[in-house]
Amino acid sequence: MVSLRFPFLFSQPPKPNPKLPHTKPTTTASTFLAASAVVSTAGAAAIAICQDPKDPFLKKALNSLFSNKSNHCSLPLWGSLSLAENSSSSSTVVESKTGVSFPSVLDDSKRLLGIGLRKKSVLGLKNIDVYAFGVYADDNGLKKFLSEKYGKLSNTEFKENKEFNEYLIENDICMTVRLQIVYSKLSIRSVRSAFEESVGSRLQKFGGSDNKDLLQRFTSQFKDEYKIPRGSLIDLSRERGHVLCTKIDGKEVGSIQSQLLCQSILDLYIGKDPFDRQAKEDIEHNLASLLHK
Ligand code: DAO
Ligand code: DAO
């Protein structure tokens, strides 16, 4: 069985990173070989072999491909795969601390840019892992945005350009942040108070103090009777026209048209003070490498 540690770290030098995503063994051997060919020619995505393949031909091919052998699931190789190649492989990427997996492609057109973990400090005494998240962006929208806005910059210039995240946060590019709950004792009441704090502070930052109504509209979507046990999936999607659409376990619970709200939600993950700094950095790296593919 082969496990790919998939590709959202493009075109970077390998670096030790315990939070690098692992991919579950959902990819077939032939897909892997197709992906390997891309890797060997283009050089770049992080791919790991977690277990030896049973097929001797594949094993041989892999051995010759990965001369740098490792027993870990985290052997980094750097390759470049397109969205089409990703989607055909139906690969998933695993958040290493929680074991939560994310598809590398969502809704056929959204590309996974990075994954991370939302923690919460409780009474300053302990940190709990609340949910793992994956940040996705529409591939076409993203490429258009990147080439129009940053096509002339080199990789280094792009990485140093801090304004591009703000642009992504503010503009009408379809994006989804998928949350998978890992904390097993989450009550709707604690969710409401947490996002009054997190989303509320962003609404204030971007829109000024008078945004209670907007926050209220958002939180009132989440009825007291909803249950969000461990494993629940929440998709927060910015759809065209700055419409924030929320789904719980695939079921739409509401949508609100507000640029301010969309911006405030995305800022939690890719803004100046993100929940998971490493996730934000991974996303920046991936955007930079997409630009120069
Ligand atoms: O049990 O009191 C407690 C701690 C609860 C922490 C809740 C954090 C909620 C974070 C928002 C989750 C959004 C889905
Ligand atoms: O982590 O502090 C945070 C903010 C999370 C924002 C998204 C909340 C969506 C929660 C849906 C709850 C459904 C009952």
Describe the 3D structure.
The protein is an alpha+beta fold. It is 38% helix and 21% strand. It has helices at residues 29-42, 56-65, 83-89, 139-150, 155-160, 163-170, 188-207, 212-219, 259-270, 277-291; strands at residues 92-94, 101-103, 105-106, 110-122, 126-138, 175-181, 233-239, 243-248, 251-257. A 7-stranded antiparallel β-sheet has the order 3-4-5-6-7-8-9. A two-stranded antiparallel sheet has the order 1-2. Helix 1 packs parallel to helix 2 (56-65) and helix 7 crosses helix 9 (259-270). The model is unreliable at 1-82 and 84-89 (pLDDT under 50). One lauric acid (DAO) binds at residues 118, 188, 191, 194-195, 198-199, 222, 226, 228, 234, 236, 248, 268.
